[in-house]
Amino acid sequence: MNNKCAICDNKRKQYKNNTFAKTCGNKKCIITLRKNTNIKKYGHVCNLHSEKGKEQVKNTLKNRYGNNIINVSQIECVKKLKETVKQFYLYHHKNL
């Protein structure tokens, strides 16, 4: 069994149940591995940039909140939260 990090060849992180992580645990290695995996799976660094990821988000919103919801900002509780933030903090951001 190879105990080397997939990115930097340092010793891989070992968990209490004697299994090993894919990386050494260094934050840079973890981020690099995540980016590489997303590029392989989705063709982009972030899965939300791909058409598959966008469709997945839309389908989840439709399943949870109904067919007429295609964006998180259309959910009623999010609208209320935005209004509360505006009133409480007196913060008027152009995107709110």
Write a structural description:
The chain has 96 residues and is mainly alpha-helical. It has a domain at 1-49. The chain contains three helices and no strands. The longest helix is centred in the middle third of the chain and has 16 residues, at 27-42.
At a glance:
The protein has 3 helices and no strands. With 96 residues, it is mainly α.
Write the layout of secondary structure elements.
Layout: H1 27-42, H2 51-65, H3 76-89
Q: What attributes does this structure have?
A:
0% strand; mainly alpha; 96 residues
- Number of β-strand runs: 0
- Helical fraction: 40-55%
Largest sheet: none
Q: Provide the gyration radius in Å.
A: 20 Å
Number of alpha- plus pi-helical segments: 3
Strand content: under 5%
Averaging pLDDT over every residue, what do you get? 87
Going by helix content, strand content and strand pairing, the class is mainly alpha
> Which descriptor suits the 3D outline?
elongated
Distance between the termini: 52 Å
SSE order: HHH
Q: Unreliable segments (pLDDT under 50, ≥5 consecutive)?
A: none
